[in-house]
TrEMBL record:
Stated name of the protein: Acetyltransferase component of pyruvate dehydrogenase complex
Taxonomic path: Bacteria, Pseudomonadati, Pseudomonadota, Gammaproteobacteria, Chromatiales
Main enzyme class: transferase
Peripheral subunit-binding (PSBD) domain span: 280-317
GO BP of this protein: pyruvate decarboxylation to acetyl-CoA
EC number, as in UniProt: 2.3.1.12
GO CC annotations on file: cytoplasm; pyruvate dehydrogenase complex
Protein source organism: Thiocapsa marina 5811
PROSITE patterns according to UniProt: BIOTINYL_LIPOYL, LIPOYL, PSBD
Length: 579
């Protein structure tokens, strides 16, 4: 029989007046038992609250920004009278943690289903079973996973320290994450990390070894080594309060004096106190970011207390794509792409491993960034260069008298420069923030040169101001320097457009990669004679395949088509270069 029940906030440990930061359901939603319904956040804890029952939500009784404590109504739920557990007596919600109902031996306030960004404090340890002497200065100690409540086999998602690091008391050592919990584990002592025994992907349980530490002496907390250090979220009053009903242990005389609560750090001190501390986000958002390969350290949170929300991650991805490839030294994309699997090819037959040339390593990394960060579109077209080729052959003898080898490329450079000056958007670049265009009043064009060491792109400057013979001579000189490995860095900088000509090798078309921060590149394949209809009959014409790749954030498809059409017209009739 269907009934409407109020879902109350269960016991979430030593937390009260906690802020609601996310509501994960809405009226009319059908939810299942143990499904997360909202997220709470205190100074040091992120807690996702599950539903104790399955049913249909009739009304929400809280909103984002409200502050709630144990027993406060969260929502009304129409149920079929069953849930994942029987409701506990005295009006306690069925989602109440097992540790709060199971009797002595469980830590007070360690929730079974609430999720915290840091472990809740354990009950005071039994001096007879866990007390150890205070460490001596320089002593090596084993730091183990403390009691973190009813969590087992929790994966390690971040390791925040390395061997040799100097750490302080309560500094975060690693981050654990279960299905709905993110927990940062603090250090009980200060000292130097000697060895880290866990790695990302390991699963841990209470008592598992985390690291060995060469201490500076007694810990500030006075806690026994390997026990749970008090968290900064606890106030002095909370630490001195009597233990809850789940624990019958009595506080040893004078213990409150020996275990003062740590001072709450200011936000500006967090970097110094918790070295390596990661971005503030819920487990759901962290998982979402990992699926997209986004490093949350680069994302600015818009939620309460700088919390990173799902919209922040999506906005960051959009902004990154809009900005294009980073151009600074050592810049890298924020996407963590999966590594390629390592394959032992030797098991299939004889192999030999040789190292890539320095040029291929450098150009390979740059082209990889460009391919990943620039939204490429490639426009294919053809240009009739029959007349141009006849003219070039007629001028070869005159060029030879001046010691110049006259190829097709100088003519192509001149035509491209004219087209760029008429359509300057194709020689522009995006500003660093991706919000504007840098329009260039010069026409420097890079020409890809194939060398034994790899592909290089020397730049021919002020192409629009030079004649065909001057361009041919400069191209020849740059090509010789490139093949001899004598190009200077300045010879390959400042280009606003690139040309990759494979006509001397072959091919019909290809998709060249935009050489960011440029926004377009022209690929040229081998010209072939084809029958072309002139309106009355077919006649043989020498047709040149053109492949224009461009950055679609800057160049629209219509502009790309207009550019190749204009270039085809210029190459088809050299007289248009004079207009």
């Amino acid at each position: 029989m269907a009934t409407v029940e109020d879902i109350l906030l269960p016991d979430i440990g030593d937390f009260s007046d906690v802020e609601v930061i996310e509501i994960l359901v809405a009226p009319g939603d059908r939810i299942e038992a143990e499904q997360s319904i909202l997220s709470l956040e205190s100074d040091k804890a992120t807690i996702e609250i599950p539903s104790p029952l399955a049913g249909v939500i009739r009304a929400l009784k809280v909103k984002i920004g409200d502050r709630v404590s144990q027993g406060d109504p969260l929502m009304s739920l129409e149920t079929d009278g069953t849930g994942s557990e029987e409701a506990s007596p005295e009006g306690t919600s069925a989602a109440e943690p097992r540790s709060a109902r199971s009797g002595a031996g469980e830590p007070h306030g360690a929730p079974a289903t609430s999720r915290t960004a840091a472990p809740l404090p354990a009950s005071p340890p039994d001096p007879k079973s866990t007390a150890q002497r205070a460490p001596s200065r320089g002593e090596t100690l084993s730091v183990v996973l403390p009691d973190i409540g009813d969590f087992t086999d929790i994966p390690v998602v971040e390791v925040l320290i390395s061997p040799g690091d100097r750490i302080e008391v309560d500094q975060s050592l690693l981050t654990l994450e279960s299905d709905k919990a993110t927990m940062e584990i603090p250090s009980p002592n200060a000292g130097i990390v000697e060895e880290v025994t866990v790695k990302v992907g390991d699963t841990l349980n209470q008592g598992d070894l985390i690291l060995t530490l060469r201490t500076d002496g007694e810990a500030d907390t006075g806690a026994p080594i390997g026990s749970t250090a008090p968290m900064a979220a606890n106030t002095a009053e909370e630490l001195e309060a009597p233990p809850g009903p789940a624990s019958s242990a009595k506080r040893a005389p004078g213990e409150s004096e020996r275990r003062p609560a740590p001072v709450l750090p200011r936000p500006e001190d967090m970097a110094a106190i918790a070295k390596g501390r990661k971005a503030h986000a819920s487990p759901t958002v962290r998982r979402f970011a990992r699926e997209l390969g986004v490093d949350l350290n680069f994302v600015k949170g818009s939620g309460p207390k700088g919390r990173v929300l799902k919209d922040d991650v999506q906005g960051f991805v959009k902004q990154t794509l809009a900005q294009g490839a980073p151009t600074g030294a050592g810049a890298a994309l924020p996407f963590a792409l999966p590594a390629a699997p390592e394959i032992d090819f030797a098991k299939f037959g004889p192999v030999e491993v040789t190292e890539l040339s320095r040029i291929k390593k450098l150009s390979g990394r740059h082209l990889h960034r460009c391919w990943l960060s620039v939204p490429h579109v490639t426009q294919f077209d053809e240009a009739d260069i029959t007349s141009l080729e006849d003219f070039r052959k007629a001028q070869k003898a005159q060029a030879a008298e001046k010691g110049i080898k006259l190829t097709f490329v100088p003519f192509l450079l001149k035509a491209v420069a004219t087209a760029l000056n008429r359509m300057p958007v194709l020689k522009a670049s995006l500003t660093a923030d991706g919000e504007g265009l840098v329009l260039k009043h010069f026409t420097h064009i890079g020409v890809a040169v194939d060398t034994p060491q790899g592909l290089v792109v020397p730049v021919v400057r002020d192409v629009d101001k030079k004649g065909i013979f001057a361009l041919a001579a400069e191209l020849s000189e740059l090509g010789e320097k490139a093949r001899a490995g004598k190009l200077l860095p300045g010879d390959m900088q400042g280009g606003c457009f690139s040309i990759s000509s494979l006509g001397g090798i072959g091919g019909t078309a290809f998709t060249p990669i935009v050489n960011a921060p440029e926004v377009a590149i022209l690929g040229v394949s081998r010209a072939t004679t084809k029958p072309v209809w002139n309106g009355q009959s077919f006649e043989p014409r020498l047709m040149l395949p053109l492949s224009l790749s461009y950055d679609h954030r800057v160049v629209d498809g219509a502009d790309g088509a207009r550019f190749t059409s204009l270039l085809g017209a210029l190459l088809g009739d050299l007289r248009q270069l004079l207009l």
